[in-house]
Design a protein that fits this description.
4 copies of one chain form a homotetramer. With 80 residues, chain A is mainly beta. Chain A is built from no helices and 8 strands. Chain A has a single domain, classed as Ribosomal Protein L25, Chain P. In chain A, the strands form 2 sheets. In chain A, strands 2-6-7-8-4-3 form a 6-stranded mixed β-sheet, with no helix packed on it. In chain A, strands 1-5 form a two-stranded parallel ribbon. In chain A, a hairpin with a 6-residue loop joins strand 6 and strand 7. The termini of chain A are far apart. Chains in contact: A-B, A-C, A-D, B-C, B-D, C-D. At the A-C interface, strand 1 of A face strand 1 of C. Chains A, B, C, D: This is DUF2584 domain-containing protein. Chains A, B, C, D: It comes from Neobacillus novalis.
Chain lengths: 80, 80, 80, 80
């Protein structure tokens, strides 16, 4: 009767993000996931890789057992 | 630094829902709200009114400090 | 990197609750579960059984992959 | 009818933590707050200060409109 969800504290892209504008990306993840919205959050390619930069999530959408994030990259790590 | 959200266990429409199809409705609420998705949930006009029926939330969207629900009415109370 | 949790909208006891006082019960469930606290919530023995009554959750504790609820029964269904 | 909660992605102590053991601390915060448990999380004195270190939250308790965290400091920033 419960609804499984996953609390996430960073964005792990696995390189599957799509750029929609200059600094705006869309990323679809499996399952229902809870992310902080409009709060600086780290972006990584994999969960163990270095940080790519920092983003603000602008939109979260839950539908058909998936979560679609729209996020704005606000800073980029120079080493990337 | 935290993100305020509200855990909701029923849909309170305040009569502001929009029918998009036969049994499918869209409702926009203020703030970021967490609802169970794809689980039967009671629908009421106000929080103290009798139940209108039961719905399944099919989509939840968070953006710009508001939550947009798309829900499917699966049963209707005969007294309404 | 995420934390799995389950959003719950009712208390399903499976008969495993322990009475600690007159109307106060403690129930331990597997996993991290999110329940509304201090809001009337239905109590059932199994997820498909009839409602036993209504409770207010007074305390939620997460530790070692389990959730311990303390709830106060505020109404009892006469048929039970 | 909803339950207000706050999603938190770091521990902000405001110097109010109590040491209970070597690396184990207890911190009480106002309101119901959702934190990732058993996942590395940053600890800061204020939300704008530098990081003090990293912790694992071992226990979260919600009761009477407050949240009590028990966390284990797993790394300390040398500059602190």
């Amino acid at each position: 009767m419960g609804m499984p969800l996953e609390l996430n504290t960073m964005i792990v892209t696995k390189g599957r993000e799509t750029r929609v504008e200059e600094n705006l990306f869309v990323l679809k993840k499996k399952g229902y996931r809870l992310y902080p919205i409009e709060i600086p959050i780290e972006v990584r390619k994999t969960k163990d890789s270095d940080s790519n930069g920092t983003a603000l999530i602008k939109k979260v959408e839950w539908q058909k057992s998936s979560t679609t994030l729209t996020y704005q990259l606000i800073s980029l790590n120079s080493t990337n």
